[in-house]
Amino acid sequence: MERGSGIMRICVFGAGSIGGNFATRLAMAGNEVSVVVRGAHLEAIRARGLTMLSGEQRFNVKVKASDRPADLGPQDVVISTMKACSLPGLAESVAPLLGAETPVVFVQNGIPWWYAHGLGAARPAAPDLSRLDPGGALAKVVGYARTIGAVVTSSNHVIEPGVVRNISPERNTLWVGETDDTLSPRIERLRATLIAAGIASPATRDIRYDVWHKLMANLTGSTLCLILAQPTTIQATPMINRLARRAHAEALAVAAAHGVVLDDSPDVRYGPKRVYPDHRPSILQDYEYGRPMEIESIVRAPVAFARQAGVETPNLDAIESLSVSLALSKGLYAA
User: Fold this and answer.
1) 8 A C-beta contact, residue 161 and residue 115
2) Backbone angles phi, psi at 273, to 5 degrees
3) Please, what sign has the CA dihedral across residues 314, 306, 230, 295?
4) Model confidence band, residue 74 (pLDDT cutoffs 50, 70, 90)
């Protein structure tokens, strides 16, 4: 996985907003970085390099870019920043990037396709998650042995082709972990590489805890922004705040029923001390721009966990119905 010099050959697959941020930082740290992108973004990166704006700083790096992974060759590690609904495209084309031991790090929102694999015996079985990996393509092409789970906290936008703005300079974190939560040498090396590139990567021995903790914001807050077509500031209004708290309490109960007890509460997440930025969550942006939506991983899979555990979730059920209806109305999700 790692070269003798400490420099790694890293491909960021789907280097949009978050991927563009990480690719820039990893390249600046001296790694041999390539990106898989398409269209105007690809042409801009080929012509002018990849640019990231962070605070008052501007960074530009030259990276190898292609829409054909076969052009890039085997990698030491592949970091997928594709949205969950776009992962079938990765399954179709990622093979040329995979050497004998190349791991694939899946950075995504919501319940990941690999969740049921490596699940500890103390935790209840997961519901049917086959819709997260249609036809089992990821399991066949990538496989569980190569898979590394990941959870990201970082706010970014592609403001023009080839240019990414990082709007959270103080908050760029990537948790990484094996699907069976072992502390492997490849996780330690990957974390060291991320940290050397200025990407925080706290140690974790329970990647599913991190999955559910990140999911709370998307499931109980971002979905309300989608339904109301409003930025996150809407969560501070009294009636929406009450709804978010109720949905959050239900989501915590679902996670606990599946063996993940979160250090979280509605009073903290949606309490009076929280600052709500004027930010349009990615699920709302996808709806507004007509892009495929992460309905399955962010909304439907968590509700499936609730039904499997017999946890009553009237507020989450309503959020599911409204979110699915909106996505279906624009053809951005196939039920």
Assistant:
1) no
2) -85, -10
3) negative
4) very high
- Measure the CA–CA gap between 162 and 302, rounded to whole angstroms: 34
pLDDT for residue 4 is more than 80: no
Phi and psi dihedrals of 32, rounded to 5?
-90, 95
Q: To 10 degrees, what angle do helices 282-289 and 314-329 make? A: 30
Strand boundaries in 190-246, DSSP class E: none
Instruction: Write out the catalytic residue numbers.
Output: 214
Close Cβ partners of 47 (under 8 Å, ≥ 6 residues apart): 162
Q: What is the pTM of this model?
A: 0.94
- Comparing CA positions, the residue from 225, 244, 231 lying closest to residue 279 is 231
Count CB-CB contacts under 10 A for residue 331: 9
Helix, strand, coil percent content, the chain, rounded in steps of 5:
45, 15, 40
What mean pLDDT comes out for the span 69-88? 96
Helix (H) or strand (E) holding 239: helix 238-257
170: three-class secondary structure by DSSP: coil
Detail the DSSP E strand segments found in 161-239.
Answer: 163-166, 173-178
Cβ–Cβ under 8 Å, residues 172 and 20: no
- HSE-CB for 300 with a 13 A CA cutoff: 21
- Report pLDDT digits (tens) over 233-284: 999 999 999 999 999 999 999 999 999 999 999 999 999 988 888 888 999 9
The CA angle 57-82-201, to the nearest 5 degrees, is 55
